[in-house]
Amino acid sequence: MTFSRRSLLRGMGAAGLSAATLTSLGTALKGFQTASAADTSGYKALVCVFMLGGADCHDILLPYDQASYDSYANIRSTLLGDYERVGGNSRARSAMLPLTPVNGSQFGGRQFALPPEMSGLHGLFEEGNAAIVANTGPLLFPMNRTQWENDSVPTPKQLFSHNDQQSTWMASAPEGAKVGWGGRFADAAIASGANTNIDFSTITTLGNELFLTGETAFPYQVGLDGAFEVQVLKQFEGNPLEDVLRRHFKAMDFARPNLLERDIARIASNSIELNETFNRSLANLIPVATQFPPNFLGQQMRAIANTIAIRDSLFMKRQVFFAAIGGFDTHSAQATDLPIVLGEVDQAITAFYRAMQELGLGSDVTIFTASDFGRTLAVNGDGTDHGWGAHHFVVGNAVQGQTIYGTVPPPEFEHDQDSGGGRLIPTTSVEQYAEPLGRWFGLTSSEIAAALPNFRNFAPKEELKTMMARA
């Protein structure tokens, strides 16, 4: 097996203090892009909330008209019985939160609702500040059930595999992909001169995430309370040993001739400088007053809100963020486990939305959800199995909300988008989902084509052109 110096350094960056320091090095090695026309006026940020494990779309956007609900309840009778036995968050029709989409007439009398634990997102939807994009997922070309059964249209590789479909969502390719579309969006903004300090262009609260990695942009990791620092330097602050230790950790006296060794030394030095720059900016911040839930996703969203609040001191005009929550692989105990994680997603996104209002950035920050895949409509006992297409939320004041975009397949089997067991064949590709977000972010048609190479395989979805019309 052979490794490029660039790929090796990328991996080392993930294990170091901050992968973002590779941005400067990568740029030095490959040169700046020289032509771009992205609109980088004002400030804009995209925030991806990834639901790891495969969120059950059939348990999020629920059928509410009586006929559809009866069909759903018949298929999922054992699971609905589990909900009643567990108590707390029922899936009884009377417990649901009905939606009143402004485009409701296009669904032929069908009605929809959210589960009771998602009251925050329900409120944002009804206020017009959240939308739902239905049946979204990885595709290479448009496809229906007949084409699936005849194997007449190519499909994404390794369907229904967690790692591969997470990668395909983030980078349009299975596990092993190198560059994600969030990183490519940031690349375009960087090439247009949006960010004076490009190291903070893509930011993760988890790790070196594929979604945020571009050709120029590399993810910078923040902790829940700021950037990570070398604790021994903090302990010896003001002590004569501090300078000695700082010179050691920053490799200031390193003069070895080996190119790779010098790269690693440069990474260590840049990491310390960037993390201290970030924390100095954070130290001068008056934190947002909005109260975030104490769970892990809530605290990730709080960290992102505070990072956005220091955007000016970091010289940022375009940023892409990534947060994630696990617990969605509900093969069993779904009635017990799923309401908990859905409630955490709801509370975290709702709090974050309110924090953006507090910062006066409600129209400048857009949140969107993603997941490995949806799940089967069929029940396997007390859970569901890996699916394909799923329904997702887009939230922010720039969103043309109170709208369900796309096609919602009926709660039954053997319809045109059923690949088996109610496993939905997507009607909106990930690229079609991402395209209006890229346009809102400021990208031109050519930049979107470069960031989303599979987008050319799909006809434009006219309705999605209006999703970000309030920008």
In short:
The protein has 471 residues and is of the alpha/beta class.
Q: What topology does this entry show?
A:
Layout (H helix, E strand, L loop, with lengths): L4 H11 L6 H9 L13 E8 L10 E2 L2 H10 L1 H10 L10 E2 L13 E3 L4 H9 L2 E8 L7 H6 L11 H10 L9 H11 L10 E3 L14 E3 L9 H5 L5 H9 L9 H25 L12 H14 L8 E8 L8 H25 L6 E7 L18 E6 L8 E2 L22 E2 H12 L3 H7 L20
Parallel strand pairs: 1-8, 1-9, 5-11, 5-12, 6-7, 6-8
Antiparallel strand pairs: 2-4, 3-4, 5-10, 9-10
Helix pairs in contact: 1-11, 5-13, 8-15, 12-13
> Which secondary-structure class do the elements indicate?
alpha/beta
The portion of residues assigned to helices is: 25-40%
- SSE string, helix = H, strand = E? HHEEHHEEHEHHHEEHHHHEHEEEEHH
The count of helical stretches stands at: 15
Overall shape: globular
Strand content: 5-15%
Give the terminus-to-terminus CA distance: 48 Å
The whole-number mean of residue pLDDT values reads 87
Radius of gyration: 23 Å
Largest sheet: 9 strands, mixed
Low-confidence stretches: 1-36
Describe the fold and architecture:
With 471 residues, the chain is an alpha/beta fold. Helix content is 37%, strand content 11%. The strands form two sheets. Strands 1, 5, 6, 7, 8, 9, 10, 11 and 12 form a nine-stranded mixed sheet that branches. Strands 2-4-3 form a three-stranded antiparallel sheet.
